Amino acid sequence: MIYIIKNKCLSLSVNSDGGSMTSLTYHGEERLWQGGEHWKSQDVVIFPVIGHAGEYKANGKTYTPKSHGVARYSEFALADMGLDYLTLELASNAVTRQTYPFDFNFTISYKLKKNSVQVTYTVRSKSGKIPFYVGGHPGMKAPGGEAVVEFENTENPLFYPVDGGIPVRIHHMDRLVLNTDFFKTYKTYQLGSLSGGKLCAITNDGYAYTYKSNCPVYAFWRNENGGDYICVEPWWGINDSGDAPVELSEKPFINFADENGSNFSYTLTIDKA
What we know:
seven-stranded antiparallel sheet
């Protein structure tokens, strides 16, 4: 089912199948990628693994997860809704336990405020502590698949190669040019150890997408073969790689939640540049 929330600036549509955004209009103009041959999705809710993860072990058993985990393949229930906010809920079940053996309650909340949408993921365990990754994957319209990312603060981040290996320190980064050549070189570009300042992706059709989060990793992605979109992805975790520990609880950037729950949030703001 598609749920719609609105305010004077934004209209947001969310699909209960997967819990992800399917439309985000700014003063009536669609700014979320609407799918195509180079990427059929518009957004992905990532939980409890990130990327095309390999087999992992938990509680002495081996599991083979699907891409980005279980949330994107699950039907969420409506937990709460108003004119400008929405909360969807997913409880662990026999299907989720086939690839993620833990009992959990996972909610996604969307809240509109002026020209911003705040997305909050909440993970609660039903029994003991559970390990997981979580993150967002919004695809925003960008003609030519191009954007210039400007950092609020001059950063000295760590670049994490997607195939694993030793992270590389980058000094004095204040902008990042995303285009076809960039994505053919890097596939998925993962940056960590950022200051927590805002990131602003400016497109060549005059829009600015600003991201604010305390996430430990931002990923930048677009299909290397094309598509008029860019994905700036706030991650509480990292792409799995061959040199990562096999045990889920030992993987880098792993999170843990108990019965009290843990919250993870990012805010996306749309402006005319």
